[in-house]
Input
Amino acid sequence: LGKASPAQQLQLWVWCLSCFIGTVGLFIYLPMSTLPSLEQLSEEPTLLTAVYGMSTAICVGIWFKTRHHPLFSDALRAPLRVGTLAAVIGFSGYCTYVYAFSQTLAPADQAPQVGEMAPDFEITDPEGFTWSLDDFRGTPVLLVFYRGHW
Amino acid sequence: MVYLSDPNQEIIDAYGLADATLGKDVARPASFILDGEGRVLWRHLPGDWRVRLGPDAYLEALDHVGVGVQSQ
Output
């Protein structure tokens, strides 16, 4: 770094900082904040994927530009290389995850759409009363499917 | 309010709600608001079985589609 002019040093630090933000910021903060919320992901995966992909591309770009840059010592290149590798692996993993998730959910949306008629049913409760959706004709119904106590 | 059990998954299957991510032997959490004729006015189908709506969300949804207590 001694040979670099102040302007070049600044450039170096901006590169390092953006790489740091790109990797640490995205690959720690984003997975923690969004991946547990699969619902969000299933509703709007495009934007997140675009942001993720863009960040990965920036990391790869930084690594590519600094690969043979004379101002970068091996000590500087090493974290950039590791960061870029982490970004690429993280993004690939994320894409695989989104794809697998969309595949498992895709056939599942056979539920009645808004505007369609809800299928009628008849079912007996534990006390022996038989209920059907028809019993509620004329009044709005909130129908909740719940998987039990767990 | 009526609690019903669907051990044979007849209603769950009729509504296409068997959870493909968990072996299809449980229902996805799902909610529907139907009008007086049985037409779906609103539905909520989270992709994640851990996501379940609370009473406030249902009250809001009922008002949103115009069949809630406040909107009548």
Summary: The interface with chain B takes residues 37-39, 41-43, 101, 104-105, 107-121, 123, 125-126, 131, 133-134, 136-148 of chain A (CB under 8 Å).
